[in-house]
Amino acid sequence: MSGLKPSFHGPPGILKIMSTQNISVHLPDGAVRQVPSGTTPLEIANSISPRLASAAVVARISPLTTGKGMQASGEQPAEAAMYGADDTAGPRLVDLSAPLTEDVHLELLTEKNPESLKVVRHSAAHVMATAVLELFPETKLGHGPATDSGFFYDFYREKPFTPDDLAAIEARMAQVIARDEPFIREFAPREKSLEDFERDGDFMKAHFIARFTHPGEQVSFYRNGNFVDFCRGPNVPSTGRVKSVKVTNLAGAYWLGDEKNPQLQRVYGTAFFSKKEMDEHFARLEEAARRDHRVLGKQLDLFSIQELAGAGLIFWHPKGAMIRKIMEDWMRDECLERGYQLVYTPHVARVNLWQTSGHEGFYAQNMFTPMELDDADYRVKPMNCPFHILIYQNSPKSYRDLPVRYAELGNVYRYERSGTMHGLLRVRGFTQDDAHIFCMPSQIEDEVVACIDFAEAVLKTFGFKEFQVELSTWDPKDRAHYAGSEENWNLAVSSLERALSRKGIAYKTIPGEAAFYGPKIDVKLVDVLGRLWQLSTVQFDFNLPARFQMEYVGEDGERHQPVMVHRALFGSVERFFGVLIEHYAGAFPLWLAPVQMGLVPISERHKAYAEKVEAELKAAGFRVEVDARNEKMNAKIRDFANQKTPYILVFGDKEEAAGAVSVRTRGKGDQGSMPLAEFIAKAEALVASKSTEL
Ligand SMILES: [Zn+2]
Ligand SMILES: [Zn+2]
């Protein structure tokens, strides 16, 4: 960065002297202050209370007059947002030292505002780059943004960083923080800056300036100490405000994601407001790693992904398949009880069908490429909907037949880019617990209430206590982007709203988030670590019934178009299973555990009693495994415990004589001896109530 000398253009003091005008600053409590143009948020904070001034991290302003200075944001919004000119039309975060030059609403954000952490992390990336250039001055800088869990910086340096280098970078960052250097915003002419960067071999910074700024502009830099970075900000007031920081890991990344380009070193780090928050973060990560379904899937022999077969395709091993059978049996029985009819449909269909449904047009990039057969081209199905419509249309329907509810555990295949797959969570082939409801407009509300009831039953049954609901609606100002009439949309949205309020469920409405073909309700469950998982969806569709010209004969003898609702509750069986594994850390409740009881005969001579115990448990419907190996008792117990078997039943002479078993309960240890009949009665009750306790 040497040689780069941005000219001062807008530091607060200078502007203040230049201006004699007053502006009005509206504060969140409704107060309005008249201050000279050029006053900074920090000065306003100080005039309110010095405590607020020292607690403030960043400011949020939104102009009272809007509609000017709007910038197009290009095709990479995240980067454009970091490097492009300020979007001055809407609300935005600014430095505490930014001069205010127009009438604004001003909010001072402290550590309590979640946005503040992102600003701290962005500034931490500057601190990291400062440290790297001090230690390795030959390094060239790339992109350095905040992320949801921290930040990273891309560096170009021929020699890869070693673990020792990373430790040195972290130690130097602590020094940069201790120096408490103010972050000072500076501006320089674009052309001069480009020239400087190019001359110094800073090809990445030159690229960002060329790409995200425009000829003739002044471009924005931030200086701390001797370090200057091309950046639009905002940043915290000084490096000392980056309190707790850690370098976490190093990964390779190609410049601009293209493997023909130089390989960069992406150094990741994270920052928090305190060491305590940092420690909690890492404890949570450790806990999440302990629960990782890919690790547990292997350890408990539940499923695999086979290199030879291809990425994103799941092989369910016997123990995983047993859990799946229990999930599917429950789901099918529950569907029948709730008035659904079960159907099965093919895995492939002629391209013509996908043309009629519209998938050939708007969904083709998510589908496997066509297979050429002698009579036509076929595609593997990405969705089951058109198939259920064909069954509906196979015979005429009258209002008396409605609602029609078809349910299927349907295998679908969707194209995901190689390298993007993730265990059971992101796959190319999965099973939807899919259903389609065809009904009259007057039936919508009851159907939606029933869907929400069903979704609640799924979550409760599988052991989740908390969930969040979102209602995605359309943007009525953008009519051209949506299929279906305004009347239909209003009816659908109000039915969803009424259904939710009838259930007394709190929800968040997200306008403009609906698919083009109809509004929807999404249910996100909260797992034991507080993570949110999007699973159940209840989705309206005005598009497919029209495309397939679906109809029913109404009470009036006329033909009408039915309303169609897609709904999936597990979402994907694979994904739900992945969430279950992580939620329970592989220690499934008794009713789901693939092996519910591990039997441990103490020696060879208890073989006959082991067979008797096994037979009685199996007769009672339990899944049991006997370890008859000639191994030490403790080794057998340990093996069952590693498999997270809910109960380990141990027996020797004493138990055999008493018709008893010695019970070791998962998570509770040795519970002593119990008559077999009593144990069976207890376990039966736990299974019947689908208890999560043992
Ligand atoms: Zn920056
Ligand atoms: Zn569907």
Keywords:
single chain, 694 residues, alpha+beta, five-stranded mixed sheet, 22 helices, 32 strands, globular, disordered N terminus, binds zinc ion
Q: Please tell me how large the radius of gyration is.
A: 31 Å
Give the terminus-to-terminus CA distance: 63 Å
- Molecules bound to protein: zinc ion
Main sheet specs: 8 strands, mixed
Strand content: 25-35%
User: How many helical stretches?
Assistant: 22
Helix content: 25-40%
**Overall average pLDDT:** 91
Record field, number of beta strands:
32
Low confidence ranges: 1-18, 67-77
Task: Tell me what you see in this structure.
The protein is an alpha+beta fold and 694 residues long. Helices cover 35% and strands 26% of the residues. It contains 22 helices and 32 strands. Helix 7 packs antiparallel against helix 8 and helix 15 crosses helix 16 (486-502).
Question: What topology emerges from the helices and strands here?
Answer:
Blueprint: H1 12-18, E1 22-26, E2 32-36, H2 41-48, H3 50-55, E3 58-63, H4 77-83, E4 92-94, E5 104-109, H5 114-135, E6 140-141, E7 151-156, H6 163-179, E8 184-189, H7 190-199, H8 203-212, E9 218-224, E10 227-230, E11 244-254, E12 263-272, H9 275-290, H10 293-299, E13 303-305, E14 314-316, H11 318-337, E15 341-342, E16 348-350, H12 351-357, H13 359-362, E17 371-372, E18 377-380, H14 385-393, E19 404-413, E20 429-439, H15 444-461, E21 466-473, H16 486-502, E22 507-511, E23 520-526, E24 532-541, H17 543-547, E25 552-553, E26 559-560, E27 563-572, H18 573-584, E28 597-601, H19 607-619, E29 624-626, H20 633-642, E30 647-651, H21 653-658, E31 660-665, E32 669-675, H22 676-688
Parallel strand pairs: 1-5, 15-19, 21-22, 28-29, 28-30
Antiparallel strand pairs: 1-2, 3-4, 3-5, 6-7, 7-12, 8-9, 9-10, 11-12, 13-14, 16-18, 17-18, 19-20, 20-27, 21-23, 23-24, 24-27, 25-26, 30-31, 31-32
Helix pairs in contact: 5-6, 7-8, 10-18, 15-16
One zinc ion binds at residues 383, 385, 434, 436, 566.
